[in-house]
Amino acid sequence: MEQILSVKNLSYTYKAGRVNVKALDDLDLEICRGEIFGFIGPNGAGKTTTIKLILNILPLQNGKIKISGEDSSKPKTRLKVGYMPESAVYSRYLTPKELLYMYGRIFGIRKSLLKQRISELLALVDLEKEGSRLIGTFSKGMMQKVSFAQSLINEPSVLILDEPTSGLDPVLRKKMRETILNLRDAGKTIFFSSHELSEVELISDKIGILNKGRLLATGPTKSFMGKKEEGLSLENYFLNLIKEKQ
Ligand SMILES: Nc1ncnc2c1ncn2[C@@H]1O[C@H](COP(=O)(O)OP(=O)(O)O)[C@@H](O)[C@H]1O
Ligand SMILES: [Mg+2]
Fold it and tell me: Which of 9, 55, 153, 159 has the smallest set of CB atoms within 10 Å of its CB?
């Protein structure tokens, strides 16, 4: 299968006042076209740091990141990448329509195309009726929907979602999972992070388990299912793995 996202020897250290925080330690990842990659790890494992490096929000200190064979640091490479941040901060005084319009224009999408695309996206996330309401009045779930719609404005071929289902109720979670599966079936590659294994095993084709900046295990989701037959839930397998490597 064709590799679409590759991360090699990625390390990252934050400077936090006088102390250094090593967030990533020699991370390698490979994601192929058309697959859903579930990036799982406890809080503080380094998931968001990895995502920010892929998107060039943080500058590379070490290692290489390629998207479709091109360096991810080139803006052109990221034109076809969509990104949903962990907690999006948008102006309270914009409406979803205005926000999506703004992002669309940033991507250079023609005004004549945008109106249609915005209606389609609002329909996709069930916000048709709220399209002209101020975002400042939205609930957490509605904000997540706006953020998800925003990540799709540029019709990305690679979609990077940082904890897309966190804080959502079960109905919205299910809807989000279905939408992600539909996007995969439409040929998109999806990289999403989560700290909930149950979430990841439901839809991922491939899993990567991160802890303290290191990849503990990676492979097709089915390869982890064997653990279940051994009477070990994926959850317990994961917890054991983390404990072993402490
Ligand atoms: N801006 C920052 N300054 C210093 N340390 C940070 C910063 N952002 C994250 N970290 C640290 O880097 C590590 C990884 O964080 P993060 O990538 O956010 O993990 P995750 O997304 O898996 O919860 C944590 O130890 C966190 O405290
Ligand atoms: Mg995070």
Answer: 9
